[in-house]
Structure formats: structure tokens, C-alpha cells
Amino acid sequence: MTAAVDNELAxxxxxxxxxxxxxxxxxxxxxxxxxxxxxVVARLxxxxxxxxxxxxxxxxxxxxxxxxxxxxxxxTPWWRLSLPALTVAAMAVLALVVGLRQFDVxxxxxxxxxxxxxxxxxxxxxxxxxxxxxxxxxxxARREPRRGSEPPKDPPAExxxxxxxxxxxxxxxxxxxxxxxxxxxxxxLDEGPDPSDGxxxxxxx
Amino acid sequence: MREVVARVLLLLPLLATPVAAQGxxxxxxxxxxxxxxxxxxYQRYQQLPQQQQRMIERRYQQFQTMPPxxxxxxxQNYETYRGLDPGARHEFTxxxxxxxxxxx
Lengths: 205, 104
Fold this sequence. Notes:
The complex is a heterodimer. By secondary structure, chain A is mainly α. Chain A is built from twelve helices and two strands, in the order αααβααααβααααα. In chain A, 60% of the residues lie in helices and 4% in strands. Chain B is mainly alpha-helical. Classes of the chains: A mainly alpha, B mainly alpha.
């Protein structure tokens, strides 16, 4: 539904959805609700102050939710994703945005030192200039948290011990596809009435 | 912290095998652009579930034992894959699913 609202569907998917909407009032309502929700989200501020511990917890939950959603999509046609799930997600985002503004005021007075945070998370504290930047609440963009920052002069041990692993990460993630690239490309798909199932892979770099 | 140390120890043997023979480069020997790419990917890696991290480490080990020509073939295939437009990538993904199900 979000892809439909953003005009990101492939033409065949769009046609299939349009046909379906002419006969399904539930999906029409769901599309309208999704459009409203995205409008509200689009008007939210692009950046906000976010304590790093809370940010990590959020990211973990979002990953879990995405995994659950992905496995659910493999069983459910994409246009039948439940309205309650979208509504709950929208409410959670809105509640988080409102709540964070309050929470941030309190947390800036009692935020842990970077060293203590690193000790708790089990990860290196990072180089001095990063540590300094972690002293206050972290400013993150909504779509790409933490990425695009300058690489450290003194990288974490895992990165320093195997930089090639991280240089080639996209290749490693798609390794099976890349190993059998030609065989996959020459695979033929059956012609069916509606080949789209909403399982389009998300770009992962 | 113990987990980080354990993972570093896990990765160290990888450096002693074909990687070293093929000219392993340390962090300081990477260009600024390479450092940026590695750093960005490192952050992505940190956000993956542990199961996927383990899988990537295994694939890394496998990749490093491949002949250079095979590594180059995979790099070229990745560049082709990355250059696919959204429609072509979707089609490729569908074909990949079909290919995989036919295979099993």
C-alpha cells in the first residue's frame, strides 16, 4: 500500500491493484488510511534528538518487525496486509515522536558517559572524536540512521582486523545470486495472470 | 566486550590463509573512499541479526578461498546486478526464487 501511495508500483502491479480496488471496499479504505498516515508522517520533522540507547532499541525492534513482516508477506498477498498492523505502526511512530521530545529533555540531564554505554553494549567506544559526539543525544536522520558519517581514524577492532569483509559486504550478502548469475538470468518464468506477489526485494546496497 | 574479542579471534585465522597471500591490506592502507565504504558497510553489518553476521563471515571465508578469476567474476556480476533498474531487478529476484525452488 505504501508503494502504491508513493507511485512506486510496477505498471503491472498498479494495474492489478486498480482492478482489485474496483471490487474491494476494504482495500480502498486501507489505501486511503495509508495515504493519510503517510501524509502525517511526511509532515513530521526530518531530524530529531535521540538518545543513542533508545535509538539502538528502536532499530532492533524495527529489524524484528521487518523480519516478521517479510515472512508474513511470503504467505499473504501484498494488498491484503492488515490495516490494523499499519495503524499500530503509525500510532507507534507518532507516539514515539511525541514521547521523545519529552524524554529527550529528561535524558540530556542523566545520559550515560560514552565509555559506560560502550561497556554496557559490549562494543568499542570508538575514536575520541566519535566519543565526543556521543556525549549528548544523537542526531539521526529518519531514513539512514548513523550512516554517511566520517570513517574513524582508529576503527573498531572487527573492522581493522578484516576491512575486506566490510568492503565486499554487498557481494557477500548476494553471493549465491552472483555465483549463479547467468543461470538465474536465463531461468524462465511462467506466464501467469498476476505474477506480482508483493515480495519485491528491498535494495540492500 | 567479550563478544567483540571472540569475533576478532574468529576472524584472525582468515587473515593467515589465502588472504595474506593475496595481499591483505590494513585499514591505513585503504583509500579514503574505501575507508568510507568499509565504515558504512561495517555499520550496516552491526545492524544485522547475529545469524546473518555468522553467514556473512562464512561467505567471506569462502570468498577468500576462491581463485582471483572467480572473485573477479562475482564482482562483475555484482556490478551488473547493481546496475539493474527496479523492474529488471524485480524480475531477476523472481527468477532467483524460481531457480532456487527448481534446484531444491
